[in-house]
């Protein structure tokens, strides 16, 4: 129900387009072929490469609970992102990555810096145009069969990162588009199984993205609807800088435990 | 009076162990106001065929939601299929909404757990009307805003005592004081009510909660309503007081389908010894942006105080995430958690992320039988982590993470989707939080202007401060 979850879940959805090819069962395409088709049907590599940053606005809605909000995501090459979510009755949540430090300031909570598996997942999610960099990000990808998703035959591709749980991606056999993803998302509170359904692919500056996403997590359905997507915008250089609270937290961690992971993460955005 | 009769009157819809959780502050008074009106109350309208169909759809939704999402796939051994077979026809046959709701209450009541409730659609209509500042959707439904006398009630030794009187409230203006005994409300005797509830729930952890609610409900009404109270004052003289109900204390807040609540926050310094002690109280873990901001500022203001008291008496809970955020101001160590909730698919910990500047002195948390849900999660977590000492009486033992949805017939539906155990592994549901120092209220203390629970906390803080000072020598 919190805003941070929304942001991280969006990240999961983005991350799931990444994969590495490997040998597949007889009669099935390789994972690489499935992914290449996805890149092609959503615009092709050249179209992706024309973009160096983006600003997306979206609405969030949990219809069963009558809770809604607004989300804005700024992203830039190679791996910077900032997500701001405002939920009615909850307040504002921020989450960001400057390429090294993955941080969040949830509403009413202390600022925090992600570590371990959670950090790895968010770093992958922050990669701009991740479709083009899958070889760097995933250790293994395998097309393991076909399965129907809402009446559509899909290739089922299991992608295994170097760290963290595998993600299963369902690509429409005919459309080539991602229809559904399944993963277990690591959070500070624990692992959360998540299903994401993607729909209403819409072309923006040569690249098709899903304008509608529905996520199911712990029995709660969350809808995500893109309102606008703009590429190659004039984003101020300090947009992806670390907030003061996060800088102070980094300094505190460095003082307290110089050997901790956080101490190696120096702000590189100044 | 049977238990069923009491259920209808109190609006608590309790069979076995159900509690209104955050609903209690709004839903219960709303429903009870109708009861208080008595003779003027309209007979429930007969349902149309379509309305009956919607009730059956709603029943099916409730049944399936619990079947699909309850953390225990076996539902604690309840034969859920048999319950459906038995009750679904009764919903279809129900001629009025109260009858239909009673059947759905019967269904969810068979789980014997807190945080399952059916909330009448009228609650939402009233909130919508209030929000829009216009007429209600249904001309037959009144839209007066609910008023309050400004009295917190506790039943002590079989007497309905005025526990707290809110400053500048109608009761305060009328001269009502803590320790006075509420004898009659609107010409109705209170003693028989207290007696019946006491007997019916003699061994129940919710007894204190239900007793206070039973009395408070009889003082409910709309803003502007006149109400006569007869009380025994400090000299045991019968005093008759006429009140005009006023605005509830605090700010109105809403979140999703959770009923509107008025949330207040209080922080001050208590002069006790050479250095004053910080004191924080709030009536619900709700209105997150405002309350978390006020709480954070208060703790920062008291960082150098020799002790901090957090008073959760009467606090029925709210948003669990606020317990984690508030604990973050008190716990310095990383990777601590207040407890763990168990969903069907996974377990999630209530992790505490420390603030940059945390309060490091002794913390006393005050609780009573009206402290429930998130209030229990907060108190139990700090107690288990050794970060706070808990004072007062046993809590309501009603702590299950839940959410609110709307049913096809327009009613609200609250259901728990997880169980919860505190950091030490204690299930709070059914057990509650046992205070480290048990302190009961007494009429004599209240009449003398004392709060024995606060005083016990102050005494402990003074001892802790002295001990720490001695250790530094």
Can you walk through the features of this model?
The complex is a heterodimer of chains A (270) and B (473). With 270 residues, chain A is of the alpha+beta class. Chain A has 6 helices and 13 strands. A 13-stranded antiparallel β-sheet of chain A has the order 6-5-4-3-2-1-13-12-11-10-9-8-7, with helices on both faces. In chain A, helix 1 packs across helix 4. The N terminus and C terminus of chain A are likely disordered. Chain B has 473 residues and is of the alpha+beta class. Chain B contains 14 helices and 22 strands. In chain B, the strands form 7 sheets. Chain B has a 6-stranded mixed β-sheet with strand order 12-13-14-17-18-22, sandwiched between helices. In chain B, strands 6-5-8-9 form a 4-stranded antiparallel β-sheet. In chain B, strands 1-20-19 form a 3-stranded antiparallel β-sheet. In chain B, helix 3 runs antiparallel to helix 4, helix 3 runs parallel beside helix 5 and helix 11 packs parallel to helix 12. Classes of the chains: A alpha+beta (270), B alpha+beta (473). The interface between A and B is medium-sized, with 32 and 34 residues.
Give the SSE map.
The complex is a heterodimer of chains A (270) and B (473).
Chain A: H1 3-15, H2 31-41, H3 45-49, E1 53-62, E2 67-76, E3 80-87, E4 91-97, E5 102-105, E6 112-113, H4 116-126, H5 134-137, E7 138-149, E8 152-161, E9 167-172, E10 178-186, E11 191-204, E12 207-217, E13 220-231, H6 244-256
Antiparallel strand pairs in A: 1-2, 1-13, 2-3, 3-4, 4-5, 5-6, 7-8, 8-9, 9-10, 10-11, 11-12, 12-13
Chain B: H1 3-10, H2 27-37, H3 49-69, H4 80-93, H5 97-109, E1 117-119, H6 121-132, E2 146-147, E3 151-156, E4 159-165, H7 170-173, E5 181-185, E6 188-189, H8 191-200, H9 207-217, E7 221-222, E8 226-232, E9 238-244, E10 251-255, E11 258-263, E12 265-270, E13 277-282, H10 288-301, E14 308-311, H11 320-327, E15 336-342, E16 347-352, E17 363-367, H12 374-384, E18 388-392, E19 402-406, E20 412-416, E21 419-422, E22 437-438, H13 443-447, H14 452-472
Helix pairs in contact in B: 3-4, 3-5, 4-5, 8-9, 11-12
């Amino acid at each position: 129900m919190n805003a941070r979850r929304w942001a991280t879940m969006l990240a999961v959805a983005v991350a799931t387009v990444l994969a590495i090819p490997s040998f597949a069962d007889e009669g099935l395409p390789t994972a690489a072929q499935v992914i290449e088709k996805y890149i092609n049907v959503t615009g092709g590599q050249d179209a992706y490469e024309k973009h160096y940053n983006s600003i997306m606005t979206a609405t969030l809605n949990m219809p069963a609970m009558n809770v809604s909000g607004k989300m804005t995501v700024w992203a830039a090459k190679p791996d910077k992102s900032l997500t701001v979510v405002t939920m009615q009755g909850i307040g504002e949540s921020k989450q960001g990555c400057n390429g090294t430090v993955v941080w969040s300031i949830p509403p009413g909570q202390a600022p925090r810096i992600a570590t371990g598996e959670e950090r790895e997942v968010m770093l992958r999610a922050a990669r701009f145009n991740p479709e083009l960099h899958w070889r760097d990000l995933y250790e293994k990808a395998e097309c393991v069969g076909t399965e129907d998703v809402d009446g559509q035959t899909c290739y089922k591709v299991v992608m295994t990162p170097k760290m963290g749980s595998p993600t299963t991606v369902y690509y429409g056999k005919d459309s080539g588009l991602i229809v559904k993803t399944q993963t277990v998302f690591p959070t500070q509170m624990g692992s959360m199984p998540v299903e994401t359904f993607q729909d209403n692919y819409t072309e923006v500056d040569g690249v098709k993205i899903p304008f509608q996403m529905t996520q199911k997590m712990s029995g709660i359905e969350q809808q995500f609807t893109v309102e606008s997507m703009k590429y190659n915008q004039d984003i101020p250089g300090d947009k992806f800088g670390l907030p003061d609270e996060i800088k102070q937290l980094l300094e505190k961690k460095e003082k307290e435990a110089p050997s901790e992971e956080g101490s190696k993460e120096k702000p590189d955005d100044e | 009076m049977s238990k069923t009769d009491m259920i209808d009157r109190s609006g608590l819809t309790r069979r076995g162990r159900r509690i209104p959780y955050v609903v209690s502050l709004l839903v219960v008074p709303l429903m009870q106001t109708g009861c208080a009106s008595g003779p003027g109350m309209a007979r429930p309208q007969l349902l149309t065929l379509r309305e009956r169909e919607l009730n059956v759809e709603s029943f099916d939704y409730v049944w399936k939601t619990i079947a699909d999402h309850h953390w225990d796939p076996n539902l604690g051994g309840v034969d859920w299929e048999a319950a459906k077979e038995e009750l679904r026809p009764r919903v279809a046959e129900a001629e009025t909404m109260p009858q239909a709701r009673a059947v759905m209450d019967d269904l969810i009541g068979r789980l014997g757990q807190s945080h399952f409730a059916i909330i009448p659609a009228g609650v939402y209509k009233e909130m919508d009307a209030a929000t829009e500042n216009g007429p209600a959707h249904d001309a037959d439904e009144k839209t007066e805003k609910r008023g309050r006398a400004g009295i917190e009630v506790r039943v002590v030794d079989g007497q309905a005592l005025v526990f707290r009187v809110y400053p500048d409230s109608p009761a305060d203006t009328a001269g009502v004081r803590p320790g006075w005994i509420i004898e009659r409300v609107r010409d109705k005797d209170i003693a028989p009510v207290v007696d019946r509830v006491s007997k019916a729930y003699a061994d129940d952890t919710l007894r204190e909660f239900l007793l206070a609610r039973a009395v408070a409900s009889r003082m409910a009404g709309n803003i502007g309503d006149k109400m006569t109270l007869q009380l025994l004052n400090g000299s045991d003289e019968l005093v008759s007081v006429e009140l005009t109900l006023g605005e509830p204390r605090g700010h109105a807040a809403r979140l999703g389908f959770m009923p509107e609540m008025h949330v207040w926050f209080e922080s001050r310094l208590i002069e006790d010894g050479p250095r004053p002690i910080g004191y924080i109280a709030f009536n619900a873990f709700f209105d997150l942006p405002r309350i978390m901001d006020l709480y954070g500022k208060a703790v920062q203001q008291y960082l150098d105080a020799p002790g901090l008291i957090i008073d959760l008496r009467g606090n029925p809970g709210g948003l669990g995430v606020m317990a984690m955020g508030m604990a973050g101001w008190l716990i310095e160590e990383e990777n601590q958690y207040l407890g763990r909730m168990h969903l069907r698919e996974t377990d999630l910990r209530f992790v505490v992320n420390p603030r940059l500047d945390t309060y490091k002195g002794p913390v006393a948390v005050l609780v009573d039988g009206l402290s429930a849900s998130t209030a229990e999660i907060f108190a139990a977590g700090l107690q288990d982590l050794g970060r706070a000492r808990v004072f007062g009486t046993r809590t309501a033992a009603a702590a299950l993470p839940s959410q609110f949805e709307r049913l096809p017939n327009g009613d609200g539906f609250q259901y728990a989707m997880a169980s919860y155990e505190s950091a030490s592994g204690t299930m709070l549901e059914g057990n509650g939080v046992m205070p480290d120092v048990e302190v009961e209220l007494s009429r004599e203390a209240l009449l003398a202007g004392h709060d024995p629970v606060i005083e016990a906390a102050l005494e402990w803080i003074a001892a802790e401060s002295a001990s720490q000072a001695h250790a530094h020598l």
